[in-house]
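Quick sanity check, Transmembrane protein:
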Amino acid sequence: MTLIELAALFTEQKSWLVAYTQLGKDALHVYFGMALFLTVRLLWRRRGGWLAAWFAVLVMACGGEWLDVTAEVSRAAVQPDAAHWHDIWNTMFWPTMLLIVGQWLQPRARPSAHADADASGEDAERRLEQA
């Protein structure tokens, strides 16, 4: 499949989705961005998950706009750059907000069981003897 065929298929599927859901393209950008962000974040719970999820949405948004531009060039109907930046902005806004506040949404690490065992071990007995 060539790039132009892939771009045409992408545009066709996007048009079908807009007609089927009766949502605007802007709303779909927001929904797809949030869905991908939350999916990656739920799958990647380790350190760096917030950034990985944000980066996945950025790649999706830029890739989708690149396919849109490719399809427009093949039809000789290129949109102004502002329209494409608007789509990227729509897709990235809420994932960016979640990235910024993500550190407060992350539960704090609890002290490990090993640290509790040390506190009640030999050191605790020595402290009692010194008292």
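Posting the structure with no commentary besides this: The first helix runs from residue 3 to 21.
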